[in-house]
Amino acid sequence: MTAHPPPAAAGRYPQAATAPGADAAHRSDIPARRLLLVHAHPDDESINNGVTMAKYAAEGALVTLVTCTLGEEGEVIPPELAPLASDRDDTLGPYRADELAAAMEVLGVTDHRLLGAPGRYRDSGMMGAPQNERPKSFWQAPLDEAAADLVAVIREVRPQVLVTYDPNGGYGHPDHIQAHRVAMRGAELAARADFRPELGSAYAIGKIYWNCNPRSQVEEGFERLRATGHSFPGIATVDDVPGVVPDSDVTASITGDPAYAAAKAAAMRAHYTQIAVDGPFFALSNDLGQPLFGTEHYLLVHGDSGAAAGEREDDLFAGIGEMVGMEESARIEEAAE
Ligand SMILES: [Zn+2]
User: In which residues is Zn(2+) bound (predicted)?
Assistant: First the structure.
């Protein structure tokens, strides 16, 4: 096995020569549309948002991924890599950092960071596992400390849109629940001028979404899986899919060029220790097949929908154009004073 370089904590996109303290919204070299995603482990971003990330990166938006832990406690699928596991060599974290980098390359995402410094927060393991109690586990991190690490990113990047999990983290994993809490608290604190001004000037995110999966799509996917030949020892159930909601709850659906779905599948494949992909299906370490979705769905929980009343948005930035315009005119007024 080759040595793995430590993952960088921040600042993956090219730094232009600008005035000190210039932030994303005031720099002409930074894309006008900026999307921030907060995830618990490497692979969650590709499974949940691979299509969305590929689409917005291809369209020229700045896509920033913050991953809270390196997933050190994950189970390892390929038998030849079993020694990486935390109960053996405990070298899975750096290996997964490399898998994440490969996945981001496939999705065209250049700005991916770990929350805080590399190694700051460790995978907490499944709920109830003894690893939950380790002092360095993400589950034990004081909320406002971890949120402050995110505030620094929010105030630097100034994203109009934030994507994270629902309050149950989609399926109850402690790191997913904590990632949700940190994302929501980070967004709140970033907007408060009295909170840690040394982390940058206050910034309010326009729209916040939680990942979800509409029940009809999930059921249809499992029907397709049962009707198709596949290589998995068994099939998962609807209950194994995180964030399943009634169709009527969904407020945004993102799809697009089939190349984005292909990029998502390739990104999931890059997480080789965690995911086995077989055509339009995949399995995690439980070996149970489940559908790989080419359309991703969201619940708008903060900000105004850009769609007509009763309709779903097909763009997470819908309605943001006006907000960007407002920022722009405020700046012109500022400059005129
Ligand atoms: Zn995860």
Answer: 41, 44, 176
Most distant CA pair in the chain, distance: 68
pLDDT digits (tens, 9 = 90+) for 170-202: 999 999 999 999 999 999 999 999 999 999 999
- pLDDT digit string, tens, across residues 141-178: 999 999 999 999 999 999 999 999 999 999 999 999 99
Q: How far is the CA of 215 from the centre of ligand 1 (A)?
A: 21
Structural domains of the chain ordered from first start: 34-303+311-335 (3.40.50.10320)
Closest CA relative to residue 259, chosen from 9, 50, 33, 111: 50
What pTM did the predictor assign?
0.89
The amino acid at residue 285 is S
Ligand 1: centre distance to CA 20 (Å): 36
Rounded Cα–Cα distance for residues 97 and 89 (Å):
16
Determine the distance separating the centroid of ligand 1 and the alpha carbon of 332, expressed in angstroms.
43
The answer to whether 176 is annotated as binding is yes
